[in-house]
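User: Hello, can you help with two protein structures?

Assistant: Certainly.
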Amino acid sequence: MNSLDHEMPRFDDGMVNIRELVRVMAESLVNEIMDVQAEDACADGNQRNGYRERALVTSVGTINLRIPKLSRGSYFPEDLLVRYSRVDRAVVAAVSEMVTCGVSTRKVERVASAMDVDRMSSSQVSRICESLDETVADLQERDLSDVAFPYIWVDATHVKCRDGGHVSSCALVTAIGAGADGHRRLLGIDAIDTESHAGWISFLRSLRGRGVSGVACVTSDAHEGLRRAIEEVFPGAAWQRCVVHLMRSAASCAPTRQKRAAVMWQHLLEQIYERI
């Protein structure tokens, strides 16, 4: 399975090209499934005999398929290609679900079943998951020392993650940086047990260890553990509260009977910040 290059696909302004990222992951997933099916076809003594390439047009771009060849007989994923050529929502949804569900073995089996790929063992599913993990590892290990990042935004979202065969809730922490070259980059992403000081300081230290420097201001929510971690890892950097979290906190302070007014107030704040 092909892994992402050290540079994530992104637009000219530095923002990550999510469409291209999904295309690459979908391409990898489909090719991995075909490899698994071809290996099953070799169970009776048959052998693999290279690949033949074919382009598959999808809603996220053209996917380059490496269709396995066999020494005896032939293998062609007709059902897979016919069903998802041009209209491939299931493939894209499959990749998305694997990410959001924590790519646990059972959930990947369910995704494969939805794609009419029913004969997959747990070990085969785990192999596909491991190859997807390589894509994330490429992102987590990228060198970031080529440019300074004066401005960084960090946040966390609670999701289900797979760890050692078990699925549990954890905080998916992310960092986006605005470089001195004028481009924004996805600096890092990781899963931690909870939004604690220890979890945050470990994540921020990993960014610094990969070359993040020149940090002048960090924007985040007002989590006490996170603010302490920022002070320790990036001493001298200013801290600014995330506008979205600030508006949510302001709206949540309104009495229940005044929720409608709170929504209007939040909308007004949004308009004010858009004009600043």
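That covers the first. Now for the second protein you mentioned:
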Amino acid sequence: MGQRVGVVGATGAVGQELLGLLHTRAYPLDALHVFGSPASAGGSVPWPGREPLTLEALEAGALRACSRVFFCAGAEVSRTWVPRALEGEGLVIDSSSAFRYEPEVPLVIPELNAAEIPARGLVASPNCTTTLVALALAPLHRRARLTRLVVATYQAASGAGAAGLAELTAQTRAALAGEEVHVEHFPRPLAFNVFPHVDGFLPEEGWATREEMKLTWETRKLLDLPELPCVATCVRVPVQRAHSAAVFAEFAEALTVEQAREALAAGPGLRLVDDPQAARYPTPLEASGADAVLVGRVRKDPSCARGLALFVSGDQLRKGAALNALQIAEQADR
């Protein structure tokens, strides 16, 4: 039996990726509704691989009638409309940050904690960067218990949406032509540059950015380590798609590099790419469009007694967002 599926935010990057995955993964559909603002109602939205869909006005009754509702439209929309969707009997999967930190709302990566997915109600999908890092950490944590985490991320322009990708393209063309580079969406020029500024700064968190705190808060919740010492520096880089991260993890028990590679190679949702002699390691170019999260450069961290270093690349629109949300629904259907 198919599901009555609703997608809020179908015109955005994550929503478009989700619609494509509904088609390519043959998700069982009884009906598919795509919702937009009243001004956009009646317009069409592309459905990759299928005929365009007609946008419907976001309305409580239509949301309640859906058995699976995906929110891909940002925290403000979710805060307003998720409670209305929850008045129905279906499962609501929210990809925004609106409810991730509520104690009663499960934060789920199916490969880690599928047992927390309810039959109905609300499930939060983690931030894209957190998902990629936590997926790589999970098999190591299960073997040796994570005790400390340091992360530096390298986040693609498309992580800031279509506007971010368009700005990188325009800036690159202008710079190569010797023309003035205009900054509109990002805080600094991104073409031929990097900057450690993803999302806003939080003075109450010692001027960490919200993105950095998302990684800390969500990793603690996903791995059930509420006191985990963790620090992150999140950096925007001039890459079109797919995020990367340098991960430095310390464990309670000793874990050899060989044991770590073995655990990562067997980890669900991961692909070990780790042959330095052949220049084989994760890159965002290779990760772009892939479902698996790539992990490599696995080595001992000599700065601590039981530390490991590794490098991760993953498509932030697929496993980092749309694919993870759809896998939550697929798991709930079983």
